[in-house]
Each structure stands twice: as C-alpha cells, then as structure tokens.
C-alpha cells in the first residue's frame, strides 16, 4: 500500500499516473497514438485532460482525467448529505473503449474521489460488454478484479460485483449491459485504504482488460459480425443515455459534453424486432446477459 | 369537417384510415412494401398494428397505430388531473421515417387521443430534421402545417409552432432537433373540432412531407454525406432517449419496446468533438437549429 497524503496535489498526481499508465498500455497494444485535449471547468477551478484514440484496433476510445473545484449543487448535496453550496474537490479517471474487432469486448472503467474538506468519498467501477463472448476472457476479467478486491477486504468482490450487476442493467430490455465487473460508490471508512483501493483498481486495468484485447484483436471477422456489433452497441447507447447517472448528471450540470458523450460508440444501429437465430454465434451473448457467478 | 361520433369504434376507424393513407403514399413514393406486426396490450385490452418499411428510399421507417384500454397509472393520472386507476381508452398514430438519402429530412408525426369517459384530450405534432437543409422544403413544410392550423383556429400555428420549438430542443447541445413543425397536447375545448383537427393534421402528412421525399430522394450523394447523416442521427438518438416524454413513458410503463424504439435510426455515429469546417455543406444545418420563423 502506497502512503499518500490527503492533499489535492498528491491525489491528482496519483490519478494522472493511472491515466498515463493505461494510455501507454493501449498505445502499445493498438499501435495508435492518443490525442490530448485540455479543458477548463467553467463553473469553478481546474479542468481535465481528455485523451482520445481512434484507429483499427480501438475504433473509438477515451481515457479522461479531471480534477475540479467548485460548489456542490443542490441535487448532489442531498445525495451526499452535505449542505448545498459546500465547496468540493472532485477528481477521477474514466475510460470507455469501443474496439473495432467485434470479438473484442467494449470496456468501461471509472475511479473517482470527492472531498469537501470535512468529508470525502471514493467510488469506481469497471464492466465489460462482449459481443461474441468468450468464457475464458470473462473468467480472467472477473478473477483479476476479485484479486484486487481480496487484497483490500474479503467482502468487496461479492458486494461490488452485485452492485455492478444491479447498476449496469437495461431494465426495458431486461438484459444486463454485459458480463459485469465491479461497481461501488460513496465508500469512506478509511482514507488511506480506500484511496489505495481505487488506485489499485485503476492500475489493474492493464491486467484485467489489455490481455483480452491483445488475444482477440486480430481474429478475422465478417461484415455480419460488424453488423451485430453495431446492433449490440445500440444497447450501450440506450443504457448510457437512459440510465447512466454519471452521464445524465454531467449533462444536467452542463459538464463538458464531448468528454461526457465520448462513451458513445462510433457506429451503432437499431434494427426493428431483430432476434438472432437460435444456435448462431450471435445468439450466444444472450445467455450471458443475466447476472451470474463467473469465478 | 367530418361529423364523427365519440365512440371507440368510430375513433379507432378514423385513426386507422390515417395510418392506411400514409402507408399507401409511402409505398408509392418508395416502391417498397410495409410489413405489419399485430400486437396485444398486455396491461389491458386492445393493442396495435406496427407497420415497418425498410429499403433504399426509406432506410428504416415505422407507422404505428395503437388503441388500448386499461387503467391509468399514478404518474399519468397526476398529469391529467384524474384519480389514479381511472379507466382510459387511448389511441393514436405515430410515425418516424429515416430516409436513406442524406438530402431527405427525417420526419416524425404523432396524433393521439385519450378518453376516460368523463374527460378526453387530443394531442399531436409533426417535426422535420434535415441533414442538408433546403429552405424551400422547410417553407413548404411549415406553410402546409400553417394551412391546416389556420382552418381550425387563427392562433394554432403560432402557438403550436412555439410549443414544438420548445419541446424538440436538445438542451445539452443547445440545438433544436431540426427545423420544427407543430406540437400540442391536452387540448379539449370542443370534441368535434379538436378531433377533426388531429385527423386533418394526420391527413396533411401526404402534402407536407411526401413532396419533399419525392423531390430529394434521387439526389446523388457521397459516402461523406452519409457519414454526416449518421453523425447527425446521433443527435436524434440523444433527444429520443434523454428527453422524449413519449419514449421514456413507454419504457417506464413497459410498453412494446420494439414499437417505442422504432424511432431510433438504422445507423448512427458519434465522433469525438466533430465540428464541420465553416463554409462546407455540412456546416449549413447549424444555422437552422435555432428556432426561427419559416413562413
């Protein structure tokens, strides 16, 4: 466990290290380079670094870092049980990758930290959305997350996996967004341990996801595979625009639109009443979209 | 003005006539045939006829008719100022067309009627979303709507056009969804006149939109034009999934998902921080996405 001081400079520094390490691993795996956009937070101090990658391996991907200071709005204040207008510092790293190859799952990860001086919280999560699922990939992904969790608290994996299954669920389709992962929010029992946990989660991305990307990115695929990927990406759009609290909160509070909606896929399709034929490779995924134990 | 009796059979009959007449006009204009799905309303009596067209003129389009009877849920009861659990009859025709040619605008129309025995209301609207705007088309579209409105009440067009501009606005983008049209809801001052007004609106579709489709459907277009259309269709998805009350209400009340989400485009794309170069054909539309007078 790294000993970290609870001051904004150190906290930001550790967050940017996570962003850098992930971006380096993704550049190595894809052969493409990230482009960087620096932006300022209009409603207060600070801003962010949005890093975007586009190419034949990652068709569209973004790894965002932000660190902002301002005053908490009414809605968030209620949720956080602090008086509205309280000063806050918030920082985090979030990523969504839409790989081009339909045999590589889409992935999302987010680690976040909020501090009001008096109180503080950490939150985060990671979840994977395959199109053509591979059970070994899913097991590897979950086992890696379980390992990170187990190093911190014995009940984290079970608890946070369940939280993830509940959160990333597309109610109107009665389908999970994918094969889950972990999700947690407003954790604040031990500053040093909790902050180290989110950093460990961030740093585990190169172990949980990158090997899957490397193993599947060169599989040959057909136009039909791509079409199915576009179709399933439609579900990703549905989840993010209808249910994702982070997205909706960002839009309501006039965050930086392009950074918030970076999670949306480069191409998505909606086909009226489409159902894959039983027994085809396209029908496989539907067996995986019910929360279940993977480890 | 057609004299119509306020009974469910007659009301439904007139609604289906609107659906039929529009579908015939679209089949003639496109050379393609609609496929029909009949469905039952699980939470009560009745159901609907979903008609879907897919082809080289209309890439994806649906013209829905539904007529259902049931008990009003709490949320809607509050809005309609009736006690919850009140019996209701609701019927309507709704359509969304996503043409393939990027020079043809996307269009949406909806006419609806609700009756609780004691009370009743009509509502409806139509709005157009071009990718490469043509001022003559927009003027023709709005003038046709104005004509329909003016035949019923002198203040309808101005009032309902404003309502449309306010409703079909994508707040987080600070952009209108398109060039507007008209929108109105919970109108109930004179049964015969109000019901005839929604029918006239429905029947005006073949005058307002079909001529635009016919005039533009064979314009040559490039892959770049298509890409821009995919990109702008992303905004349509954003509006429908984040703001459209009909869509969200349908999803919350477990309506027939495939009929509700039929409004979503066959292909849509999101490109990080895309802005068309000033002076290009792609930059044109942005001058049109601020509510303005067209007639």
User: Which overall shape of chain A is indicated by the principal axes computed on the Cα atoms?
Assistant: globular
Per CATH, the architecture of chain A is: 3-Layer(aba) Sandwich
Q: What sequence of helices (H) and strands (E) makes up the elements of chain A?
A: HEEEHEEEHHEEEHHHHHHH
Task: Give the termini distance of chain A in whole angstroms.
Answer: 25 Å
Q: What's the assembly state of these chains?
A: homodimer
Largest sheet of chain A: 7 strands, antiparallel
Low-confidence stretches of chain A: none
**Which strand order does the major sheet of chain A show?**
1-2-3-4-5-6-9
What does this structure look like?
The structure is a homodimer of 295-residue chains. Chain A has eleven helices and nine strands. The first copy, chain A, has 295 residues and is an alpha+beta fold. Chain A has a single domain (8-287), classed as Coproporphyrinogen III oxidase, aerobic (oxygen-dependent coproporphyrinogen oxidase). The first copy, chain A, has a seven-stranded antiparallel β-sheet. In chain A, strands 7-8 form a two-stranded antiparallel sheet. The interface between A and B is medium-sized, with 31 and 31 residues.
């Amino acid at each position: 466990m790294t000993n970290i001081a609870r001051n904004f400079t150190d906290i930001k520094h550790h967050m940017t290290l996570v962003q850098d390490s992930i971006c380096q691993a993704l550049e190595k795996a894809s052969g493409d380079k990230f482009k960087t956009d620096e932006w300022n937070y209009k409603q207060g101090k600070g801003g962010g670094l949005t890093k975007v990658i586009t190419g034949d391996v990652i068709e569209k991907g973004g790894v965002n870092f932000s660190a902002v200071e301002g005053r908490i709005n009414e809605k968030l204040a209620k949720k956080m049980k602090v008086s509205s207008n309280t000063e806050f510092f918030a920082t985090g790293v979030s990523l969504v990758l839409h790989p081009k190859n339909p045999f590589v799952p889409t992935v999302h990860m987010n680690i976040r930290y909020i501090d009001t001086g008096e109180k503080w919280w950490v939150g985060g999560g990671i979840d994977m959305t395959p199109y053509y699922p591979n059970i070994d990939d899913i097991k590897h992904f979950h086992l890696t997350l379980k390992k990170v969790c187990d190093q911190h608290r014995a009940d984290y994996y079970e608890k946070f996996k369940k939280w993830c299954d509940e959160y990333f669920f597309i109610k109107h389709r009665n389908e999970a967004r994918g094969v889950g992962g972990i999700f947690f929010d407003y954790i604040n029992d031990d500053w040093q341990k909790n902050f180290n946990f989110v950093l460990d989660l961030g740093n585990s991305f190169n172990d949980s996801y990158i090997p899957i990307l490397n193993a599947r990115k060169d599989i040959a695929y057909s136009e039909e595979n791509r079409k199915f990927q576009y179709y399933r990406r439609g579900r990703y759009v549905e989840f993010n625009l209808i249910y994702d609290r982070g997205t909706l909160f960002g839009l309501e509070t006039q965050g930086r639109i392009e950074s918030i909606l970076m999670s949306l896929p480069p191409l998505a399709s909606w086909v009226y009443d489409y159902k894959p034929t039983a027994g085809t490779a396209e029908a496989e995924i539907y067996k995986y979209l019910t929360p279940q134990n993977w480890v």
